[in-house]
Design a protein that fits this description.
The complex is a heterodimer of chains A (116) and B (116). Helices cover 0% and strands 55% of the residues of chain A. Chain A has 116 residues and is mainly β. The mean pLDDT of chain A is 91. Chain B is mainly β and 116 residues long. In chain B, 0% of the residues lie in helices and 56% in strands. Chain B has strands spanning 3-5, 10-14, 19-21, 24-26, 33-39, 46-52, 60-61, 64-69, 74-79, 88-98, 101-106, 110-115. In chain B, the strands form 3 sheets. In chain B, strands 2, 5, 6, 10, 11 and 12 form a 6-stranded mixed sheet that branches. Chain B has a 4-stranded antiparallel sheet with strand order 3-9-8-7, with no helix packed on it. In chain B, strand 7 and strand 8 form a beta hairpin. The mean pLDDT of chain B is 92. The chains are: A mainly beta (116), B mainly beta (116). The A-B interface holds A 31, 33, 35, 40-45, 48, 50, 56, 58-59, 88, 90, 92, 99, 101-102, 104-107, 109-110 and B 32-33, 35, 37, 43-45, 47, 50, 52, 91, 93, 95-97, 101-102, 104-109.
């Protein structure tokens, strides 16, 4: 299994509070991703990173920010959490050779976030 | 914009039988990759199989195979000799580079039940 650790695994918090989710990898892969999974929507990409300090927006980036100060860590921050951000959040990593996207993504075990 | 459609929200199959899960996608790109992921109740996302669009030969991984029809933009997954452990959500995914950014789109999933 790919060495991906998401923390925390579960979190309950209140509307308006800041929340940071962490993804840590031990594979030294270049690409890291944050998804959210909601019933009826499948997985939707929030942000991704293609290197240290290099990030780009995904399909549902509003209300989220990310940071990657080192290869192994990718942080997802909800500056002021809202109930619509209640979801299961997945981190994924992949390697990419020569700019191709043929390498599969490997996923962490997910973080269940509930915002009351 | 790329879209991925899984038209079967739920499917069921008898143990040892064969089942086919459908996936269609919409894209104007010629170079892309397609994946099937499995998500059992444990919530892990597990790569099942992948297909490069430039390859005409259908990918096969043990009991799992795909029927890739590029002109029809169809990418179905066939599971042969179904086992109880195959019960899970299955997600079809599309991946490519466009305009300097990586594009990743998942379908909404098909829930597969395997009956003993």
């Amino acid at each position: 299994d790919a060495g991906i650790t998401q923390s925390p695994r579960h979190k309950v918090t209140e509307t308006g509070t800041p929340v940071t989710l962490r993804c840590h990898q031990t594979e030294n892969h270049r690409y890291m991703y944050w998804y959210r999974q909601d019933p009826g929507h499948g997985l939707r990409l929030i942000h991704y990173s293609y290197g240290v300090k290099d990030t780009d927006k995904g399909e549902v980036s509003d209300g989220y920010s990310v940071s990657r100060s080192k290869t192994e860590d990718f942080l997802l921050t909800l500056e002021s959490a809202t109930s619509s951000q209640t979801s299961v959040y997945f981190c994924a990593i992949s390697e990419s050779e020569g700019g191709s996207v043929n390498q599969p993504q490997h996923f962490g075990d997910g973080t269940r976030l509930s915002i009351l | 914009a790329q879209t991925v459609t899984q038209s079967q929200p739920e499917m069921s199959v008898q143990e040892a039988e064969t089942v086919t899960l459908s996936c269609t996608y919409d894209t104007s790109e010629s170079d892309y990759y397609l994946f099937w992921y499995k998500q059992p109740p444990s919530r892990q996302m597990i790569l099942v199989i992948r297909q490069e669009a430039y390859k005409q030969q259908n990918a096969t991984e043990n009991r799992f195979s795909v029927n890739f029809q590029k002109a029809a933009k169809s990418f179905s997954l066939k599971i042969s000799d179904s086992q109880l452990g195959d019960a899970a959500m299955y997600f079809c995914a599309y991946r490519t580079y466009q305009g300097g950014s990586e594009k990743l789109v998942f379908g909404k999933g098909t829930k597969l039940t395997v009956n003993p």
